[in-house]
């Protein structure tokens, strides 16, 4: 049973920073593409950033230049460094894990990020 556990969310003031972590208990982490998604109240879940098993990254336009996704295959962990946070970044952030070749997809339980003064 693959499990993903997110951590690092919290309350931060506008302009502040947070680093989210997502650690999996599964094996073969290196063959999975990893992504961070978020869902704000009343809105659809949206992609924030992703990193493939090969290390290629994609970012939503709204976070380019402010967020950075990275992965540590030895620690089975993906990170999302969030800088210059804005009120509109407030959402529940979810980690997603997708196998590179097979239709296996897993989601974490989410971590709340609140940006407020």
In short:
This protein is 0% helix and 51% strand.
Q: How would you sum up this structure, described in words?
A:
The protein is mostly beta strands. 0% of the residues lie in helices and 51% in strands. It has strands at residues 4-7, 10-12, 18-24, 32-39, 46-51, 57-59, 67-72, 77-82, 91-99, 105-107, 111-115. Strands 2, 4, 5, 6, 9, 10 and 11 form a seven-stranded mixed sheet that branches. A four-stranded antiparallel sheet has the order 1-3-8-7, with no helix packed on it. The protein is globular and about 40 Å long. The model has no long low-confidence stretch (mean pLDDT 95).
Task: Give the overall shape, derived from the CA principal axes.
Answer: globular
State the low-pLDDT regions, or none. Answer: none
Count of β-strands: 11
* N/C terminus separation: 40 Å
| Annotation field: number of helices | 0
What value does the Rg take, in angstroms? 14 Å
What is the helix/strand order?
A: EEEEEEEEEEE
Mean pLDDT: 95
What proportion of the residues is helical, as a percent range?
under 10%
Structural category is mainly beta
Strand content: over 45%
Main sheet attributes: strand count, strand direction, barrel closure: 7 strands, mixed
Question: How would you describe this structure in keywords?
Answer:
single chain, 117 residues, mainly beta, seven-stranded mixed beta sheet, four-stranded antiparallel beta sheet, 11 strands, 0% helix
């Amino acid at each position: 049973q693959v499990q993903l556990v997110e951590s690092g969310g919290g309350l931060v003031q506008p302009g502040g920073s947070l680093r989210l972590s997502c650690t999996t208990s599964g094996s073969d982490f290196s063959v999975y593409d990893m992504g961070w998604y978020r869902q704000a109240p009343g809105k659809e879940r949206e992609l924030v950033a992703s990193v493939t098993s090969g290390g290629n990254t994609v970012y939503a336009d709204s976070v380019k230049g402010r967020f950075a996704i990275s992965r540590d295959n030895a620690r089975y962990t993906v990170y999302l460094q969030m800088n210059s946070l804005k009120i509109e970044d407030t959402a529940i952030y979810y980690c997603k894990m997708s196998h590179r070749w097979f239709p296996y997809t897993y989601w974490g339980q989410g971590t709340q990020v609140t940006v407020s003064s």
